[in-house]
Amino acid sequence: MSGPIASNLVLLADLEDCKPGTKVRFLGCVHEYIVKTATLRLKHNHPASTPPTIANVDVEHNLERIKRHELDVGAWINVIGYVERRKDKGIFVQAVAVWDAGNIDLIAYENAVAKRKEAG
Fold this sequence. Notes:
The protein has one helix and six strands, in the order ββββββα.
């Protein structure tokens, strides 16, 4: 019995280490929404000792399902999508699902992802 490919839970900062085509799930804070290209620019300042990582998330195929508040600057959202490599500089993800992270305990999330990564 086959089903959809499972996504890899990663921190936004780890996206740059993912191979193109990798299906990922991550959390990010909306830094900017570019209407013309339907691109969300998400950031997550983790680890705090480094500059925040920015990911460009193409949400064009999700526009009918995204709620307005999920595009607001400062909103924390979950993303499932595929890592892309483009000629442009930066991290790019083609989103297949986007949803509100709700009232997230960011430290608990970061710790849980780190422990999962350590476990392999």
